[in-house]
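the two lines:
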Amino acid sequence: MTAARLSLAILLGGLCGNFALAADTGNDSSLPTDIQTLKQDVLQLNKELTVLENELLYPSTQSALYVSLEVGSTVRVVDINIALDGRNVGYHFYTEAEFSALTKGGLQRLFNGNLITGKHEFKVVITGYDPKGKSFQRVANYSFVKGGDRKYVELRISDDANKSQPEFQFRDWDVKQ
Amino acid sequence: MSHAPLTEKKKMIRRNKLSIRALVAAMGMAGLMNLPASAADDSGVSVDADIRPFLFGQIIFDYYVGNYFSSMNGILSAKSKGYFDDSTDNTELLLGDLYTQLNMPQQAESVFSRIIKKDTLSTTKQQTWLREGRLHYNQGHYAKAESILGLPRDTLSPEVDTERRVLLSNIYMARNDFAKARDILQGLSLGNKFGAYAYYNMGVAHLRANRSPEGVKLLETLVQLPGDDPEILAIKDRAALALGVDFLQHQQPEKAREALLNIRIDGPFSNQALLALGYVHYSRTDYKKALSFWLELLRRNPADPAVLEAMMLAPRAYEELKAYPQAVYGYRLAAESYRKQLKLLEKIDLELQQDGWLEQLGANARNVSLDPMATVDTISTSATPEAAFLYKLFASHSFNETFKEYILLQRLDFQLAQQTQSAQAFSEQAASHQIKIRTNLPSWKASFSNMASTNTSLQNKYADIRKRMKVDDDMERFTDEASFEDANRLKRLNRLEKSVAALPNTPGNALLKERMARVKGIVLFSIANNAPLAREQMLLELSELDEQVKTLQSRINGVEQLLKDNEKRLADPLPTRLATSASNLARSQSSLLKVRDEHAQSLRKQASEVLAKERTLLNTQLAESLLAIARLQDAAATRELDELERLPVPAESSGTVSQ
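prediction for all of em together
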């Protein structure tokens, strides 16, 4: 820390702020090359493992359920319970950060698994607060046929036209290998 | 899909404050809008789709949740699979940002430069360029940062321009070039925290350069800022404190008092404010009032430098009030406190050398998330006794950066340990799976071949029936729709008719032929009569069959794909690859631990140095308090002597003692 960068605050008895010295890293903050290499290695290995895991765990039989929220929607989701073909396959309670990520266009994968081909049904129970702040619990069902490709199902949560009730729409996609 | 038009998104970007977050959100939506048209309607039908919007949606979900490592892993994995490449602006911009988060400036720089060189959206370019400048600024490479941020650009959005000017002004101030700093900040809005930070920095810089009027003007503007944003309130407090101290230094106690009274009593600067208010009254020789502020400070945490200073000032005020016994008592109290603090300091210094100290300090970081890059309050200072001594160190950029790095390495270590385990487990699993596939694949393929040919024949039969149904629409071949019994009866009658037709033409045979024709006519009438009902029944059955046949075909395709997957897996040296990965992971982990330990040593060293300075200061204060006690005792003794001397000298006696 050079004297030149000290603000008056310091001179006056430690009144200085971090932000005044936000750039006060000098050359000390540059990391040794071995850390950089190590980080790169770790990222590389992580990436390879993820690809491999996905190949191993989810071949063509992969099916997934994603949840998204229409940007600008005032619905607040508290939790979601998912059943697939009558069996409970997932439950998620939303933290503030997770819900906020959904409002910014994030897609959350709530279920990922292998399904045999044929007809299946998701039953989703959503609890939350509607645009008027009233609590609600709604059940949404969706039937789909799993074929030879991967199947992605999206549950999109939005407001109705009057912005008074939550709406739930399902869509599904067959995704080629 | 009800998405806002792109122009709306651009507006939204401008409205949202700053940076990549808003941009990425908008891009994410734009990305999702690129789904095939049929996928974008709300009919719920299945279509072939691009996987990228899903991948990107997950990546930004992780990013916004703060799971930066997962987000980065998502981008790198998707890139390696070819879903994204270096030309995908939205993921690239995010990747650059994530490299910055992971403290990998070279990689970040290379990503940002790549985007800037491209012919891309102006908003993307602006954000990237700003991020590149900020990256160099944060690394302390001011010249490079200035060369990037100082170049004239196309029209900048207000947010980008504000941050650019603030960064440049900080660079100029760091070089003591206040005129340039002032010029660059000219006309900057105070409506956001960046503007407020800039004005504070500028105001303080003016004060330091002995240009009080200019500095005071800026700081007074800040103090008058409306709003209840915590960051703005903190800046206002700081500005008021800086003003108060400056007025005090320039012998303007009334103005100093007015400025200091703006500081929140429950804010982080209340101790300094109380101390300064005491000085204000002390300078006006209003010792009683000064005492009241300093005595208030004595009730607070004794490790705070303002409190420690007040311990010496309160007895000093008593002295001025000629309350010597209270003054002596105050100095003794101060000496006792300094001794206690010195003992505590020794204890902390010992603890600091223990292994658990850094772990304890990073308790928050451990509990929040398993993501190695997740956002956390890196130092859990509130509960630790050392916080009072080391708060400045904890707040320093250098310590924080090293500590963040240490926590990151800790978490990476945990991550690597887990992945080594799972890589080993996967390797074993893959090996046993390959054995199973090798053993069973021939029989699976044979069974499937039979099933596939049965399916082909079924599909052909079904197609043939459908075809016939279509042909029979005009009811010309209504006999096809005869019930099983009627069809049998007709078959028998046709056989008999042939036999009868072969008989010689006699009157008896003619009668027989006529009867035959009549019976056949009755049967055909019955069949024709029942045909519509039978056709309806058949259509119903066919529609049921239709779904079953389609499902069957789709299942055959699915199983065929699975067989291909398994064949591919058999050829893949997967177990070996996984075993190699596991050993690579183990090797990385050992290098990582080495680097982590070096970081731990550096952090301890920094803390020890701060404690050593604190010790020196406390020793000085202790010495001063002891000297003050001695001084007062001397004065008291002198006063007693003086009083004794002033006493009338008793008359000279004859030296006899009265009896």
